[in-house]
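Troubleshooting log. The previous structure file for this entry was overwritten by mistake, so regenerating from the original sequence record. Sequence copied from the archived sheet and checked twice against the printout by T.R.
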Amino acid sequence: MANRTTLKDVARAAGVSQMTVSRVVRGDTVVSVRTREHVERVIGNMGYVPNKLAGSLAQAYSNQVAVLIPSLVNNVFASVLAGITEELEKGGYNPVVGVTEYDLRKEEAQLVSMMSWRPAAVILANLVHTDRTRSILKSTSVPVVEIMDVGGDPIDLCVGLDHEAAAATLADYLMERGYQRFGYLGWQTNDFVAAARFRAFRARLETRGYGLVAPDAYHAPPDMPAGKRGLEMLLSAAPKTEVVAFSNDTAAMGGVNLCLEWGMRNPDDMANAGFTGLRMAQCLPQPSTTIM
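Regenerated output below.
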């Protein structure tokens, strides 16, 4: 945590008065375009966020905690949010939630909006952010917690798992079971941890001389309908596939449903594997292998 950047700091760095900075922040048209653009650049570089509570509350921070997650379609994040909410409420805090849809620019915009209300802390998923987001988080004096991933350079606190190690472990397990024709479905390039799992899974197979059948057959959001459609497309392209690893258990559940429709036995005819260890995935008539 660092000392919070103030309006006075911005004015000093920009070489203008505090009133000029205040007018730029308020969108006052009395400021010239050249000066406005200069001050806005300084604001962006310093990670300054205006305080909307100033003058209305005596306390420096609210009892709200900013929580930014990439998706609510992915059941993992619904469970994570439930856990965060439960623990925050014990301490008298309330989560204010933003859904970024795996869009770093949207994450940045939501963070700027939330920080203007002086949250008591910030929780956000993953370790990849825009430069401005990182600047804002590094300049704040409240705790910043990045969750879900530990494979990078955290800004402050970090809680998560090594996704590359998890993917490699799953690949090892499937190879030890004797599978030789592997498929992989349901990853998105803007979901950085899912993409990391995909790369690590494929790389581990390659160390033993294996590859992926139809590796580009289907890229889509990791949900049940996408898992079902994706498996159908993959099997059309590579019908002798022996095992398919899905980006997460939700997508794997869609794959299991397709196997049930087609009368395929899991794992005898073809095996399904996923990530995240969702309990509901183990309630299917033919549960898939998972890792968490």
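The chain is about 45% helix and 15% strand. Archived copy saved in two places this time.
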